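To the wet lab folks,

You asked to see what we're planning to order before we commit. Fair enough. Below is the target structure as tokens, and below that is the sequence we designed to fit it. If anything looks off to you, flag it before the synthesis order goes out.
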């Protein structure tokens, strides 16, 4: 009897520790489940006829065609760099949970980067130094974290 009570107590403590470390899991029901209220489908709005406007008459000289370098500069997206800003996590689950919470608070895009076996960093994208500093200060204020460099 005492062994059985010890087993139950140990199991309860273990489950409590796991829930404390990882948090309470979200349970998502399937959309076809009877417990979820069905949302009515929106009714389509009638299509309004649009009369095209006459084309504008050009009164100035046309601009010369762009050079290949100008086209490349106009089309090329800015180079994204990634900044790791928090001490590494020991599991991918913990890092993903941290990212999920930060995305909810800040709306930024974060990535979990595997550095090595059992080592996961959390990073965000930025294009220049001022954007990096702005994002660090917004993360620190939204999440209440003490981040270096803010």
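Sequence we intend to order:
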């Amino acid at each position: 009897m005492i062994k059985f009570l010890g087993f139950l107590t140990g199991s309860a403590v273990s489950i409590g520790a796991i829930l404390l470390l990882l948090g309470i899991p979200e349970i998502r029901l399937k959309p076809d489940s009877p417990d979820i209220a069905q949302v009515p489908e929106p009714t389509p709005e009638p299509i309004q006829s649009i009369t095209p406007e006459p084309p504008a008459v050009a009164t100035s000289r046309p601009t010369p065609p762009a050079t290949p370098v100008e086209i490349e500069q106009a089309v090329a997206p800015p180079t994204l760099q990634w900044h790791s800003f928090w001490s590494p996590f020991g599991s991918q689950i913990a890092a993903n949970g941290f990212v999920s919470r930060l995305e909810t608070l800040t709306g930024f895009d974060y990535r979990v980067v595997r550095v090595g076996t059992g080592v996961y960093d959390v990073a965000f994208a930025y294009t220049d130094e001022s954007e990096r500093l702005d994002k660090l200060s917004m993360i620190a204020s939204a999440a209440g974290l003490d981040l270096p460099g803010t």
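Structural context that might help your review: Residues 41 and 60 are 51 Å apart (CA to CA). The domain at 77-150 is CATH 3.30.70.1070 (Alpha-Beta Plaits).

Thanks,
Computational group
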